[in-house]
Amino acid sequence: MYSSDIAFTPTVKAIQSRKGSRRGYASMEEGGGWKNEVTEELARYIADQRSFFLATSNADGQPYIQHRGGPTGFLKVLDNRHLGFADFRGNRQYISQGNLEDNSKAFIFLIDYVQKTRIKIWGTAKVIEDDPGLIEQLMDYDQPYRAAPEQAIIFSVDAWDANCPQHIPVRIDADWVKSALEEKEQKIAELQAQIQKLQSAVQAN
Fold this sequence. Notes:
Structural class: alpha+beta
Low-confidence stretches: none
Order of helices and strands: HHHEEEEHEEHEH
Number of domains: 3
Distance between the termini: 83 Å
Mean pLDDT: 92
């Protein structure tokens, strides 16, 4: 059994064979397949993200996807098999929580529009209520972030894979643009000061 079997069911493999991609994926499987632990590379990628999508499904298999956002690195690596995040209070529909009570299987999708990369993570998840210590750990951010944490969600990693950059639109983060503009303005101010100094020196001569 390969780690990618979590997504490559017999039906999927049959379609891959019919459409000509099975040989390549079979070679990938024989070479070790998808990783099932959080590597240093994945941990660094996760630490840079400010949002992701969490997919769950109910007992009848009805899927549901919800966006989760927060400060940079709010999705935290707890160890090489577990991720966690503080679940902020929102519209209080509790669809994801209800789904996880009926079906613990879950999926995390991360996409970086600047770097044009995306990561898919399969696993299971559970909601943990009434654990202030865990919430405090998960909300230990580099910068203050105003949000009301209602509970925690712990995600157990079963397998993950990185996608190719095809068809990912380039979108620039607003904070990155602000920082770049401030850096540019500072450089312009420094150059203007140098020009004025040179002009004063020329006039003095």
